[in-house]
Amino acid sequence: MKITVDTTDLEKIEDTLGVVHTFMQRRDEMNAAVHLAENVRYSPITSNVQASLERLGQILVEARSEG
């Protein structure tokens, strides 16, 4: 099934996901610092948000090249 979504709506979602991703990354980095960890291990939800953000970026690139 296909639905029609305006690219401006997708861009707003992309902006919000970007802010959420930055927040979650920084939170994970802070937690690693609190525990004196040498490496940051990002939480699964942080990784999922990153993957969703990347996929949305691909969708927007494809939409812009078609239109």
Keywords:
67 residues; mainly alpha; 2 helices
Structure description:
- This protein is mainly α and 67 residues long.
- The chain has one domain.
- 76% of the residues lie in helices and 0% in strands.
- It has 2 helices and no strands.
- Helix 1 runs antiparallel to helix 2.
- The protein starts with 6 loop residues before the first helix and ends with a helix.
- The model has no long low-confidence stretch (mean pLDDT 96).
Oligomer description: single chain
Supply the number of helical segments. Answer: 2
Distance between the termini: 20 Å
C-alpha-based Rg, rounded: 15 Å
Shape estimate: elongated
Total discrete domains: 1
Low-confidence parts, pLDDT < 50 over ≥5 residues? none
Please identify the structural class as seen in this structure: mainly alpha
Number of strands: 0
Largest beta-sheet characterization: none
Kindly report the average pLDDT value.
Answer: 96
Beta-strand percentage range: under 5%
Helical residues, percent: over 70%
The SSE order reads HH
